[in-house]
Write a structure and sequence with these properties.
The protein is α/β, with parallel strands linked by helices. The protein has 19 helices and 13 strands. It has two domains: 6-146 and 309-354, D-Maltodextrin-Binding Protein, domain 2 (3-Layer(aba) Sandwich), CATH 3.40.190.10; 149-307 and 385-422, D-Maltodextrin-Binding Protein, domain 2 (3-Layer(aba) Sandwich), CATH 3.40.190. Helix content is 49%, strand content 14%. The strands form four sheets. It has a five-stranded mixed sheet with strand order 2-1-3-12-6, with helices on both faces. Strands 8-9-7-10 form a four-stranded mixed sheet. Strands 4-5 form a two-stranded antiparallel ribbon. The longest helix has 18 residues, at 42-59. It is globular, with a radius of gyration of 21 Å. The two termini are 15 Å apart. Residues 1-29 have low confidence and may be disordered.
Length: 424
Amino acid sequence: MVRMTRRVLLASALATGLAANFTAAPAWADGEVTIAHYFTGDLGRDGLNEIFAGFKAETGITVKDSPIGHEDFKTGILVRAAGNNLPDVFSYWAGARTQFVVNSNSLHPIDEMWTAGNLDGVIAKSVADGASSYNGKHYLVPFGYHYAGMFYNKKVMEKAGITEMPKTWDEFKAMCQKLKAAGVAPIALGSKNRWPAQFWFDYLLLRTVGPEYRAKLMAGEASYTDPEVAKAMTLWKELLDEGAFGQNPNAYDWTDAADQVQRGEAAITLMGTWITGYWKTNKFEPGSDYDFFEFPTITEGVAHAAVGPVDGLVISANAANKPGAEKLLNFLISKPEVQAKWASIQGALSANVNVDPKGYTPVMQHALEVVKNADAFAFNYDLATPPPVAEVGLSMFTQFIDNPAGMTDILKETQTGAEAAFKQ
């Protein structure tokens, strides 16, 4: 397993030339705010350009935009943090990743802005409580959040004679067998970049032992060699052994898996609601072409958790224009029309309580209800455990997919790597 420390992250980024993606940030005039983000899709870039133009029209402040590819961003932004070379504002994932950067003293607390903007009355408390505060201070403004569900091709299901979506694990496995008999791969998974596999681990663990145990594992207070982890992984292994997944998931990325579902080569993919934004560009229509169902119940009585990330915006401690940066964050979260536009583009749910849910597609309205009714909302794996530990676990998932028979040894190796990473 790869052990990732701050030093290794920096060396890795420099070795692959990622640092070249980030130019030195000069001290801009008061009328400009610099921002780096990972929203690089065409719709995302175009939408942000419109939103930033609206911000300039209202405030006179220009936003200098630097979009960076999702995978490059993960390491590259840490390079900038290590070199005290962060932009004024950057997008980041709430949870352990933000905590990691807060602990390095790289972020500017926004408590005064939060109070002045009455953000307690703007941001849903259920989102703010888990995403915004670190070490007793506010640091992150939620820009949108997502839910991971079982997205499926409705026509494929109908053709296979499946009219009711499974609610239990036994029903889910029976559905997979029925799809296989109809000549369709039940599940598409594109784990080339590792992170798409994490949702399987998250839900299998949450549905068997619940959020409390998972939180202990994420904090290093439980072990990957525990029987609880082995049970969840065994359920995953059974699906792999039975051929429920398409061929060679580690050869594809998440968009490849989404395409397989859209083309009808596979029935289901477990993915976040950003898939709805991707399918929107492909003219795959919510409600008529696709829908989703919740990850099924496995152990009765276990708290029913929803899984997903919160995309947030933070201000760097060395920001050249902190007042302008605070105005930008307040604008992006407080304006219902801005939040509604961004939610539509990204296939996201808005953290702003004033956004009318009637503006969501039927699929996104369904997702909102699922999150509201969940017993808990859990950040996905790589946002729930410190980044160096997440690197160990993400590598575990793809190694396991390639070699399910080696599960026991893989879990032992993962625990050794996690213990070392927690000490960094």
